[in-house]
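Input/output pair, single chain:
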Amino acid sequence: MTTTVIETERLSKRYGRRPALTDCTLTVPAGRIVGLVGPNGAGKSTLLALTCGLIAPSEGRITVLGNAPAADAAQLARVGFVAQDAPVYSGLSVADHLRLGARLNPGWDDGLARRRIERLGLDPAQKAGRLSGGQRAQLALTIAAAKRGELLILDEPVASLDPIARRTFLYDLLDFVTELGVTVVLSSHLLGDLTQVCDHLIVLAGGRVQVAGDVADLLAVHHRIPAGAGALPPGARVVFTERNGPSVVHAAEPPDGAEHTDLEDVGMAYMMAAEAAR
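Output:
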C-alpha cells in the first residue's frame, strides 16, 4: 500500500458558474479512518466524486493511490465506494448481489462477504428492496469491502439511519479496518458519529478546506478558552468565539485557563467561523 492515498493540489470543481470546491490542497495518509465533515453544500460529495473519478476537476490535480482516479480497471478495483443512498438493486436478492460482486471484481473475497452476511442475519434469498435502511447500508458496505481494495469511500452512508443502526454500522466499519488494513474516508455532517471512529479529520465549508490533519495533532494545538479568560500568548489565534461564550483557539501550548477540547469542538469552530465570514 502507498503511504499517501489521496493527494490534491489546488483542486477545484465548478458546475456552470457555481463553485462546488475551490483550491483544495490535501494529503491523506494511508491507514487512517478519515472523517470528512461539513454542512450541507460544503463540497463533500464533490470531493468524493472527484476521488472516485465520477467527475473531472475544473482545475487543479488529484491522485488516488498514486494514479489518476478511475484511470483503468486495475485502479477501479483498488477503491470501494458507497454512495449516500447506499445503492443496492431492489429486485436482486442478497445472494444475487454477492454473485454480481464476484463477477465484477477480480479481487473479490467471497468468504468475507458470506461470513458477514451470515453474521448480520441477512437472508440470502431476501430481495434488497425489502431490507431495512440499516440492512441495505450494511449490504452496500459488505460489497464495497469484499472488493479487497486499498481505499474505502463512504459518502454519508448513515445519514438516514436511526441511532442504533448508525452505531452498529460504524463499529462494523472499525472491524473492517482492522481486518482488511484499508484506508477509509467517511463523509458526514454528524460530527458525533465521526468522533467515534475517525483518527484523521478534514473540515470543508463553503467549498474550501478549513482544517485537516490527524486527530491527535489537531487536539494538541486547539484549546477551549472560557469567556473572560486573560490575554492569549503570542502566536495564539482565535478560531471562533461563541456569543458570550467560550472560544476555540489554535496555540502550540495550552493558554492559561484552557479547558479540554474535543473533535466536535474543533470541527464546529471551523464551520461556524467559515459561516460567519460569508
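Residues 214-277 form one domain. The two ends are 40 Å apart (CA to CA).
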